[in-house]
Amino acid sequence: MSSNRRILPGFRLSLGVAITYLSVMLVVPLVVCLMEVSKLTPAQFLNAVWTERTRSAYYVTLTTSFYAAVIDVVLGLLLAWVLVRYEFPFKRFFDSLVDLPFALPTAVAGLVYSSLYVANGWYGRILVPMGIKVDNTNLGIVVVLVFIGLPFVVRTLQPVLESMDADVEEAAASMGANRSQIFWRVLLPPLAPAMWTGFSLTFARALGEFGSVIFIAANKQYESEIVPVLIVSRIDEPALTEATAVAMVMLLMSFCLLMAINYLEWRSARYAH
Questions:
Q1: Which of 12, 146, 193, 213 suits 164 as a labelling partner, its CA being 20 to 30 A distant?
Q2: Nearest-CA neighbor of 202 among 260, 266, 133, 129?
Q3: What percent of the chain has a predicted confidence (pLDDT) above 90?
Q4: Which of 57, 66, 22 is nearest to 242 (CA)?
């Protein structure tokens, strides 16, 4: 059999389309960003990405994204567990609702959450008298980021839970293990790589979120301004080169997260094998 017969039909065409897509949609924009940033000297680049305002924006973005990712891991694990292990009416309906943040425009999500948590909103009427203010606060940023990122955790954990045999848990219980021991020693080890993957995906998604945050956050400099809002404001000044420099820092963060996600997926696949 010749070597050409071992190649799947359409290999050259599909490879050409894939390379063209990667070049046009990914490589070229990155090169343009690098060319724009190269206009700055090292000192100018440092002054653009490490001012008091940018440090504050980095802090708000990273902390709110981290808190949202942690909450999503906890809620996503509980939700995935219920959807996989239990049967109840309208299960498919509730399962489909998990993907709602994927289809819903983020600006709509931010607008809806903002209207819910204002002082006269459905939730605000209850929370504000208790001293809990969500609208125009960093807490509001965390709330909308939790909503946006939850599907990433649920959809990452569901296949792992479906592949786990419930007989293992029953065997551990028959040997005298309590519920806490079953969770920490039997369930958590195979779930840990998928949980880390879901955390990384949610965290990476939250870093670049813009549409939903601008509606519920105060967007005040040095207080609640996130990096995407900072970039937009720098473009409006106009300071395109400085905005691109800040964007490159966020791009580097996202690239590191991408490498971490790939590593965790590799570990998860290796564990499953």
A1: 146
A2: 260
A3: 16
A4: 57
